[in-house]
Amino acid sequence: MSRNRSIRLAREVLSTRYLNVDEVVNRIEVTARTSAVQRRRSGPPPITRVRLIQRLLSGFHPPLRENAVTTLVLRRLGHAADLVIGYEPIPETTRHRRLFAWVEVDGVPMGTSLPAHTYLQELIRFPHQERHEHVQV
Asked: What integer pLDDT is reported at residue 132 of this predicted model?
C-alpha cells in the first residue's frame, strides 16, 4: 500500500476518534446515501491495515466500536462494507444471548476466524437494508 493511501487511512481513522458508536453508525448510514461506495474498489479491502492504524492511533476499543469504525473507513474508501450485529441462536446457561459485531464486504465476513453467518443469527445490518423476516430475541 502506498504512503499516500496509508496517510488517508490514518486521516479517516482519526476523524472518528472522538465519536461514540451511535455517531459512527449514523455516518455509515450517511455514506450509504452518497456516492462513496459507488466508486467500488477492486481487490481485497485493507481491513487489517485499517484496524492496525486504528489501534495505533486510538488504542483498543470494544469490538462493536472497532467494527463500526472499520466499516465507516472502508465505505469512505469505496468498499461496499456493512456492519452486522448478530447473536448466538442458542442462549448461554444464564438464558441471555450475547451480541456480536462483524464487518462484511459484498456479503463476505471479514476479519473473523470463522464465517460469522454460519454460527450467528443476524439481528441488524448498517447501513439499514429491508428485511422481510422478523427475529425475536
From this structure: 40
Q: Give the cell for residue 21.
A: 458508536
Q: What is the mean pLDDT of the chain?
A: 81
HSE-up (13 A, CA, CB side) for residue 25: 13
End-to-end CA, the chain: 42
Comparing CA positions, the residue from 83, 86, 63 lying closest to residue 75 is: 83
The pLDDT of residue 137 is above 50: no
The percentage of the chain sitting over the pLDDT mark of 70, rounded to a whole number, equals 84
Give the residue carrying C-alpha cell 496509508.
6
Q: How far, in whole angstroms, is CA 73 from its chain's centroid?
A: 9
Please tell me whether the overall predicted TM-score, pTM, comes out greater than 0.70 for this model.
yes
84, 6, 7, 72: which is closest to 34 by C-alpha? 72
Q: What is the 3-state secondary structure (H, E, C) of the chain?
A: CCHHHHHHHHHHHHCCCCCCHHHHHHHHHHHHHCCHHHCCCCCCCCHHHHHHHHHHHHCCCCHHHHHHHHHHHHHHCCCCEEEEEEECCCCCCCCCCCEEEEEEECCEEECCCCCHHHCCEEEEEECCCCCCCCCCC
